[in-house]
Amino acid sequence: MSKWLLLLLFVCASAQATPPSGPGTDDMQKMLIDRGLITQIGGQLDQVRQTVSSKTSDLVDNAMGFLGVPYKRGGNSAETGGFDCSGFVRAIYEQTLGLVLPRRASQQAAATQVIDRKDLQPGDLVFFNTMRRAFSHVGIYVGNGKFIHAPRTGAEVRVEDMGVSYWRSRFSGARRVETASDSTEASSSPAPSPVSAAAVAAMLR
């Protein structure tokens, strides 16, 4: 029984994450794959994680390159004098990922995926009520509770802390921009089926 229990624990761990490399681990994983107990999804998941990480890193890096650019009402680019909040977000996504978001902040909120604040990742959108209506201001989350945005007339693109009372009290919601490749990657990496104790025992006979 102890042998089966240990194997079951290994199977569960393998379904959740890629195990550390090593001769013994590789042999055990190969045996489990050969017997149909787990699927070869570790490499695919790693590729997805790396792709997502690369996208968000590029997005944030590009946004940071515009620090100090003036706010301009209706502005869409640094070359034409600056950005407003939604113009900044739209320009960063178009330049970095080739995605064209709607022009207004409220439209961007309506066109993107709703996520919980606790699930925010770099590159996600954060919305605020700065004009007595929800989703009237938008910025790009950069991590550690901070976001980059084009604030207001007379100001420049800058990073601010969402924990500051002004932004905390005006937070409207968070959104994630889904790409076509995100959907493709998710569908091409199905989760492994659960393995029962009876199935493990039968495979070991």
Shape: globular
What characterizes the major β-sheet?
6 strands, antiparallel
What structural category arises from helix and sheet content? alpha+beta
Strands side by side in the biggest sheet: 3-8-4-5-6-7
Going by CATH, the architecture of the largest domain would be Alpha-Beta Complex
Tell me the name of the CATH class of the largest domain: Alpha Beta
Can you tell me the residue ranges where pLDDT is under 50 for at least 5 consecutive residues? Answer: 2-8, 13-21, 37-41, 44-49, 184-204
Radius of gyration of CA atoms, rounded to a whole number:
23 Å
Question: Top keywords for this entry?
Answer:
205 residues, alpha+beta, endopeptidase fold (from Nostoc punctiforme), 2 domains, two-stranded antiparallel ribbon, 8 helices, 8 strands, 45% helix, disordered C terminus
Tell me what the structure shows.
- 45% of the residues lie in helices and 16% in strands.
- The strands form two sheets. The chain has a six-stranded antiparallel β-sheet. The protein has a two-stranded antiparallel sheet with strand order 1-2.
- The chain has two domains: 2-41 and 195-204, no CATH class; 59-184, endopeptidase fold (from Nostoc punctiforme), CATH 3.90.1720.10.
- It has helices at residues 2-16, 23-34, 42-64, 85-97, 105-110, 165-170, 180-188, 197-204; strands at residues 76-77, 82-83, 113-115, 125-128, 137-143, 146-149, 158-161, 171-176.
- Helix 3 crosses helix 4 (85-97).
- The chain is α+β, with helices and mostly antiparallel strands and 205 residues long.
